[in-house]
Write a structure and sequence with these properties.
The chain is of the alpha/beta class and 140 residues long. Helices cover 38% and strands 17% of the residues. A 6-stranded parallel sheet has the order 3-2-1-4-5-6, with helices on both faces. The termini are close together.
């Protein structure tokens, strides 16, 4: 694994208390790739104190002109991060995002804090499980 791409809407900033700690402890480059408008993303990052962790590694469908399930946003983010798609893992909370990740040739984790899909493979219930989930997915 070379890079981790996070969705924003519902994946990073929805009152997830371990998120800041989990991201701060990552040993791989990461970014945000979201369908949300850039101003909304930056506002959410500021409210949660994550802006310093993300900095300029933010990619929006509004800037790229590609919306999920099209893989263009994820491919663009990987290229900008200097990573091959096959070396990326996407953390997503939507079916369209998971489809976009697969279409981009990336592995994906389903962020499912509400336990709506307990049968789903590669499921992540909270960010306290992030390291173990990444390691498990990286081995597959």
């Amino acid at each position: 694994m070379t890079c981790i791409l996070f969705d924003l809407d519902g994946t990073l900033v929805d009152s997830e208390p371990l998120c800041n700690q989990a991201l701060g402890g990552l040993h791989h480059p990461f970014c945000i790739a979201s369908s949300g408008p850039p101003a909304k993303i930056r506002s959410a990052l500021a409210k949660t104190g994550l802006e310093n962790l993300i900095r300029d590694r933010l990619f929006s469908s509004y800037d790229i002109g590609s919306w999920k399930p099209d893989p263009g946003l994820f491919r663009h983010a990987a290229k900008a991060m200097g990573a091959f798609p096959a070396d990326c893992i996407v953390v997503e909370d939507s079916a369209a995002g998971l489809k976009a990740a697969r279409a981009a040739g990336m592995k994906a984790l389903l962020f499912d804090p509400g336990n709506l899909h307990p049968e789903a493979p590669n499921r992540l219930a909270d960010y306290g499980q992030l390291d173990a989930a990444l390691a498990r997915l990286n081995r597959s």
